[in-house]
Structures are given as C-alpha cells and as structure tokens.
Amino acid sequence: MKRSWNPRMWIGFVLSVAALVSYPTVFVRYPITRDFPWLTLVLIALGLFLAASGVALAFRRPEAYRGKISGSIVGALTVLLVGFFLFEIFFVSRQIPASHGAPQVGETAPDFMLPDSKGNDVTLSSLLNSSFSTDDQPETGPASGKTAAVVLVFYRGYW
C-alpha cells in the first residue's frame, strides 16, 4: 500500500504561519484586531489543532500516512513560532518604558498652545482664565462668575 502525504499537518503549519504573518501586515491596521489579536489567535488555534491532529495521524497510522519524522519537525517548528509570537504580543509589546517627564495626576500642566477645531491657536492659560460660556468659544475677558475648566487626556501609544 502506498503511503499518502499528510494534508492536515501541512495545512495546519501553513495556516499558523499565515496567521503570524497576517497580524503585522494586515490585522495591525485595524483597532479591533490590533488591540487584542483575537482573529490571529483563532487562526493560530485552528492551525495548531490541524498540525497536532496531522502529527497524531502520522503516528497512529504510519502505514497509510507519511510524516513521522517530518511531522515531528513541522509540529515542533509550529509550536516554536506560535510561542515566539505569543511571547512578543503578550509580554514584550507591553513593556513600555517609564515616562519620567510626564505630568502626574493632580500636577499643574505647563502652558501650551494648540489649534482648536476651527484652526485658531488656543493656549491653556487663556482657557483657564476665561469665563464659562455655553457656546463652543470661551469668552475672552476677565473671569467673572464661573470659570472654565480644562480636562487633559494623555494617551501613551506607539506611533
């Protein structure tokens, strides 16, 4: 009886490698798949299942399927690649260096100038010294009554 090649093992390996390559090239572009790589993890799980079942099939029925040696090598390589990917995604990418110069909670922010939604330059001090108004533009003048408040949101990310 002629032994045939083991498609599960090879499809699992190719699917795992495709999942690992697709994350940095395709899935990292979209926040839904970049923030938590759920689609990549589903593809990896399917690839690992196919590779493991292919290797198990090669060992259970060696008279029908080839791949005891190559299956072991491909299976080990698949596990190493997936392990390296998971280590990079869940450990290395979360090691953000400390920001020593960033303002802390409750600390007064330094004065800065940024454009508003209409393109006009606005400083932090002018916003804090203006009186509160109900339209989009704060009143410029002496503070009387309620004063405006400013909420600053700092987002540390990779870009």
Structural notes for this entry:
The longest helix is centred in the first third of the chain and has 23 residues. This protein folds into 2 domains: 88 residues, no CATH class; 57 residues, no CATH class. The protein has 5 helices and 2 strands, in the order ααααββα. The mean pLDDT is 81. The chain is 47% helix and 4% strand. A two-stranded antiparallel sheet has the order 1-2. The protein is mainly alpha-helical and 159 residues long. It is rod-shaped, with a radius of gyration of 28 Å.
Brief sketch in words of this structure:
Helix content is 47%, strand content 4%.
Distance between the termini: 58 Å
Please provide the count of β strands: 2
Report strand order across the widest sheet.
1-2
The portion of residues assigned to helices is 40-55%
Poorly predicted spans: none
Order of helices and strands: HHHHEEH
Give me the secondary-structure category: mainly alpha
Roughly how many Å is the radius of gyration?
28 Å
Rounded mean pLDDT score: 81
Write down the overall geometry: rod-shaped
| Percentage of β-strand residues | under 5%
Biggest sheet architecture: 2 strands, antiparallel
Secondary structure tally, helices:
5
How many structural domains in the coordinates?
2
Can you give keywords for this protein?
single chain, 159 residues, mainly alpha, 2 domains, two-stranded antiparallel ribbon, 5 helices, 2 strands
Topology:
Elements: H1 7-25, H2 31-34, H3 38-60, H4 68-90, E1 113-115, E2 121-123, H5 124-129
Antiparallel strand pairs: 1-2
Helix pairs in contact: 1-3, 1-4, 3-4
